[in-house]
Amino acid sequence: MTTPIHRACFVLFVLGLMPLAASAAQELPTSATASFEALDTNRDGVVSKHEYDSDVTFSNIDSNDDYRISAAELESILGPQEDGTPSAADRIRTADRNEDGELNDEELRRAAEMRFQWLDTDHNGELSLAEMKSGFGIPAQQP
């Protein structure tokens, strides 16, 4: 089962936005190890592409079911912007290919695939904790 923390961790890690601020409702992972543990849902010591997938994540974050993730929806997970951190809109802009201020399923999937491939330095289709640590806190790059 996918938890709200897992969903938030996925989206934010895909966008290269870890470490994170804690929301008022829940404590989000703030280290590579905590992020890894949140994503490794079957506890086998690696994060597979399946665990990193965005299917459930997108539908759960898309609270108004319009097939788009808005800054307001992302902010509901992150909590209000804190001083010195990017806003939800700034974070969305990282993967927003059509520049409409929201993420659609394709944009999130593309960002997830690119991030996974970038992190998977040994190209075995799984992320180890070491690979996760190597990309922790590094923003996603625009292609």
UniProtKB/TrEMBL annotation:
Biased composition (Basic and acidic residues): 90-102
Signal peptide: 1-24
Segments forming domain EF-hand: 35-52, 92-110
Keyword Signal: yes
Protein name: Ca2+-binding EF-hand superfamily protein
Disulfide bond is among the record's keywords: no
Disordered: region residues: 79-102
Key words, A-Z: Signal
A Pfam short name: EF-hand_5
InterPro entries in the record: EF-hand-dom_pair, EF_Hand_1_Ca_BS, EF_hand_dom
